[in-house]
C-alpha cells in the first residue's frame, strides 16, 4: 500500500499584512484561509468538506507565526475547524512575520529574516519552540512534523527540530534544488524518505521532465493526469509514500478573490480519484507517518511524457490567462 500525503501549507499572508487591527486580520483570513469568493469559500473549509465527502485524509501544515501580531486567537480560528474535522495539524513557520512583531519577537536579539535558514542554530531553536508552543496553545495536538515556509530550511533547522522533539520534516524538494530557499544538505537524487540530522526527511514528490529535469508535485504545478500517473508509478515501484503540496489559498486568485476553476477542479478530481485508486491510501503524520526505505535503489520518478507535458503547458496557459497568478 502506498500512502499519499496531501500536504496543505495553511497560512496567513505576510505580504498582505497592513497592520495589527482586527479588520486587517479578517481580510487576510478571508483571502488566505477561508478564501471567500462570490461563489462561496474555496479555502480550508471547502477542502475539509471535500475530504470528508470522499473519506480522505490530509496534513495541514499550519503557520502560527501571525500570533506575533494578532494573538493566539488568530491561530485558533485556523486550527479549530481542522481538528474538529479529524484532519492532521502539523507545524509550518514563516519567519517573515518577525519583521512585524516588534517587542513580541521571541528572539533576544530581535533579529528578523526571510527564512529559518537565515538564523543560527540557537535562534532557530527559539523560533521553532515559540511556533510549536503557540500551535499547541491554539488547540492543535503536539506536532510531530514540520515544513519550513518557502522550503527555507537548512541542516541546522533539522537539528533544531530534533532538539525540540519533532521527528519529521518535509522541506526538501528535489525538483527545486538550487532554485528554492532550501539549503538542506540533500540533492536531486534524495527522493525517498531519508534519515538526516536527527529527523526523517520526507521529500516532496517529483516527476521527470523533458530534457532530464524534475518537476515538483504541487497542485498548481501538475495536471490531474500527471499527479495520478505519478502516484500510480510510485505504487508500482513499491514506494511507501508520495507527497503532494498545496496551499490553503491555491484554489483562488487572492487579489481578485475569484475561484480558479481549473485548479479547483484539479484538486476536487484528485481527492475523488484517490478514494477509489487500487493500492493507495491517504495518510497523516499523526496516525500513519512515512517510513524509512531500507532496501532498493534511489527512486526513479515518473518519466517525462510529451503528451502529458503538452497538455500541462496548454492547461497552465489557459489557467493563467483566465485567472492570473495567486
Fold and architecture overview:
The protein is built from 10 helices and 15 strands. It is of the alpha/beta class. Helix 6 crosses helix 7. The radius of gyration is 19 Å and the shape is globular. 35% of the residues lie in helices and 17% in strands. Strands 1, 4, 5, 6, 7, 8, 9, 12 and 15 form a 9-stranded mixed beta sheet that branches. A hairpin with a 5-residue loop joins strand 10 and strand 11. The protein has a single domain, classed as Glycoside hydrolase/deacetylase (TIM Barrel, Alpha-Beta Barrel).
* Basic shape: globular
| CATH 4th-level superfamily | Glycoside hydrolase/deacetylase
Strand content: 15-25%
Mean pLDDT, to the nearest integer, reads: 96
Helix content: 25-40%
Number of structural domains: 1
CATH topology: TIM Barrel
Query: How far is the first residue's CA from the last residue's CA?
Result: 34 Å
How many E-type strands? 15
What's the oligomerization state?
single chain
**CATH architecture label name:** Alpha-Beta Barrel
Number of helices: 10
**Main sheet characteristics:** 9 strands, mixed
Name the structural class.
Answer: alpha/beta
Radius of gyration: 19 Å
Order of helices and strands: EHEEHEHHEHHEHEEEEEHEEEHEH
Write the layout of secondary structure elements.
Elements: E1 2-10, H1 22-32, E2 36-37, E3 40-41, H2 44-54, E4 59-62, H3 67-70, H4 73-84, E5 88-93, H5 98-101, H6 121-137, E6 145-148, H7 155-163, E7 168-169, E8 194-196, E9 199-201, E10 206-208, E11 214-216, H8 224-236, E12 241-247, E13 252-253, E14 258-259, H9 261-274, E15 280-282, H10 306-323
Parallel strand pairs: 1-4, 1-12, 1-15, 4-5, 5-6, 6-7, 7-9
Antiparallel strand pairs: 2-3, 8-9, 10-11, 13-14
Helix pairs in contact: 6-7
